[in-house]
Specification:
Elements: E1 8-15, H1 18-28, E2 32-39, E3 42-51, E4 60-65, E5 78-87, H2 91-100, E6 107-111, E7 114-120, E8 126-132, E9 153-161, H3 165-173, E10 177-182, E11 185-189, E12 198-203, E13 217-224, H4 227-240, E14 248-249, E15 253-259, E16 265-273, H5 298-304
Parallel strand pairs: 1-4, 5-8, 9-12, 13-16
Antiparallel strand pairs: 1-13, 2-3, 3-4, 5-9, 6-7, 7-8, 10-11, 11-12, 14-15, 15-16
């Protein structure tokens, strides 16, 4: 069993419009845009990162906004819901705020003893807010939501599967332990994690397969402290029979990728070097940052990308 994984690092999804995406996460949810860059494999598409003050691991939601992309189809074999942690007693505030801003599919519910509020993102993305007592992570203080009600970071994600067997074994190998079960949901937690500690498996044997598009999670990333820990995880996964990519430099972290038995793309990402490696903390996410290999094409890339009004 691995011990290097500390919880979630980031969750990356796809969107159909960069401006709508930016507006939702910075103005509606009150997160900070900590980086504005481009997709490493498609530099004509933004890669936008939203999180806490500095983009700590376990707080960062990222997006590839493919202009006018068709919506995904929900189903099995995907991350169905991303869950954010908010302070105890704040769901009333959030329900009123999200309702006033026209957010769709608002629905209070309870799971594993947590009061939650489910809602949809601009592309039908599945989200929930969970009231968590004692989350010491600090919400972003510079946005439209006060710290007393702000988002601490992720609570976890829910993966929708037809069968949990192979995925459950993988999670246990990665250091997650089963801690609870409620109906079709099984909860796994990584002990001593970074606050973004939970993976819930929703088991629906008759569910149709998901199809990716706008509103779909592209991949979910797990956090390790550094490159040495990442290499240990990579070797262990390879020894177990998983097909794992070489280490890839993503400028703000190093990454490896592999696909789960259910088809969900997993990433293992380092906490180093962080989002302030090329911008000071006061100005994170303001300028368009390009990977080195695209710097010579900056003029063409900037001319192609749609403007984002903050």
């Amino acid at each position: 069993m691995l011990t290097q994984i500390k919880g979630l690092h980031h969750v990356t999804s796809m969107a159909a419009d960069a401006q709508d995406n930016n507006q939702f996460f910075t103005k509606t949810l009150g997160l900070r845009r900590v980086k504005k860059t481009v997709n490493f494999d498609a530099p004509d598409v933004y890669h936008l990162y939203y999180g806490d003050e500095v983009g700590n691991a376990g707080s960062v939601m990222t997006y590839f906004p493919f202009q006018n992309m068709g919506k995904g189809a929900r189903g099995a074999g995907e991350v169905a819901e991303t869950v954010f942690s908010v302070p105890q007693g704040t769901l009333g505030y959030w329900q009123e705020r999200l309702s006033k801003q026209g957010v769709k599919e608002l629905a209070p519910y309870s799971l594993f003893g947590e009061n939650r509020l489910r809602f949809a993102g601009p592309d039908g993305d599945g989200f929930s807010l969970a009231e968590v007592d004692g989350d010491s992570r600090l919400p972003f203080a510079g946005g439209p939501v006060a710290v007393s009600e702000g988002i601490h970071g992720f609570r976890g994600v829910t993966m929708r599967l037809r069968d949990e067997g192979a995925t459950a074994e993988l999670l246990k190998f990665m250091g997650y332990q089963p801690v609870d079960k409620q109906g079709e949901f099984i909860r796994y937690a990584v002990p001593g994690g970074n606050g973004a500690d939970y993976i819930d498996l929703e088991v629906l044997p008759g569910a149709s397969r998901a199809a990716q598009g706008a509103g779909s999670v592209h991949h979910v990333a797990f956090a390790v402290d550094d490159r040495a820990a990442q290499l240990e995880v990579r070797k262990a996964l390879l020894d177990t029979g998983y097909q794992v990519t070489p280490v890839i430099d993503r400028d703000y972290f190093w990454a490896i990728y592999f696909r789960t038995p259910a088809g969900v793309l997993f990433e293992i990402a380092t906490n180093e070097p962080g989002f302030n490696r090329d911008e000071d903390t006061a100005h994170l996410g303001e300028a368009l940052k390009l990977p080195t290999r695209y710097q010579q094409h900056r003029a063409q890339i900037e001319a192609h990308l749609p403007p984002i009004t903050d």
